[in-house]
Amino acid sequence: MKKDKAVIVFSGGQDSTTCLFWALEQFAEVEAVTFDYNQRHSNEIDCAKEITKELGITHHILDMSLLNQLAPNALTRSEIEVEEGAEGELPSTFVPGRNLLFLSFAGVLARQIGAKHIVTGVCETDFSGYPDCRNVFIQSLNVTLNLAMNAEFVIHTPLMWLDKAETWKLADELNAFEFVREKTLTCYNGVVASGCGECPACKLRQKGLDEYMKNRKEF
């Protein structure tokens, strides 16, 4: 029998939506939190709203505009090009401190609504080199949040060791394959579903989908 309550950090993208379906399987109650940091396109927030509404999920949208002021990059400034980093360098889409802040505020929200579990779609396998997607960071922050708030939160990362093909497989196992494929927004240019096909996020998503479809069993 499912029990406990969870908060999921939710962007409306492939990864967080897959994690949302995972959380719905694991917990008795799930609420979503989306952060508005004046990101490159507002479509991301609109997409998150539509998904949570369709699934009947309580959805919190928190103002994180300060992050936009502090961290100029390709996701907060339309004039900065989306570029993959050279070897040893972070891509232009890295937002310093984003997951640190998002998960910290998710913890504050979780405490207020009586949730012990925090779910996030970070992944160390296909993480573009972002340091705040590493497992060691999540483990460290989990300890810090519990010490800071005298709580017993557990941060769950269902995708941590999955590549994109395996993430598609998980969505399929959760009976959410077509939902994720058609209704999520991963594209850096704000195009739902298959996206623009040109940005790094779209290429990674499509590569994983192609790989999974080659090996997908017929049901």
From TrEMBL:
Report the enzyme's class at the first EC level: ligase
Keyword field contains Cell wall biogenesis/degradation: no
Q: Which SUPFAM superfamilies match?
A: Adenine nucleotide alpha hydrolases-like (SSF52402)
Pfam families for the chain: QueC
Tell me the cofactor note. Binds 1 zinc ion per subunit.
Binding positions for Zn(2+)? 187, 196, 199, 202
UniProt keyword Nucleotide-binding, yes or no = yes
Coiled coil start-end: none
The protein's required cofactor(s) are namely: Zn(2+)
The GO biological-process annotations, alphabetized, read as: tRNA queuosine(34) biosynthetic process
Gene Ontology MF term list = ATP binding; ligase activity, forming carbon-nitrogen bonds; zinc ion binding
Pathway given for this chain reads: Purine metabolism; 7-cyano-7-deazaguanine biosynthesis
Q: Which CDD domains match?
A: QueC-like
Please indicate which superkingdom the organism of origin belongs to: Bacteria
Q: For this protein, what reaction is catalysed?
A: 7-carboxy-7-carbaguanine + NH4(+) + 2 ATP = 7-cyano-7-carbaguanine + 2 AMP + 2 diphosphate + 2 H(+)
InterPro entries in alphabetical order: QueC, Rossmann-like_a/b/a_fold
Keywords from UniProt, A to Z, are:
ATP-binding, Ligase, Metal-binding, Nucleotide-binding, Queuosine biosynthesis, Zinc
Q: What is its EC number?
A: 6.3.4.20
Q: Which residues bind ATP?
A: 10-20
Q: Which family does it belong to?
A: Belongs to the QueC family.
Q: Which HAMAP family match?
A: QueC
Q: What does this protein do?
A: Catalyzes the ATP-dependent conversion of 7-carboxy-7-deazaguanine (CDG) to 7-cyano-7-deazaguanine (preQ(0)).
Q: How does it assemble?
A: Homodimer.
Q: Which NCBIfam families match?
A: 7-cyano-7-deazaguanine synthase QueC
Name of this protein: 7-cyano-7-deazaguanine synthase
* Gene source species: Bacillus canaveralius
The record's gene field reads: queC
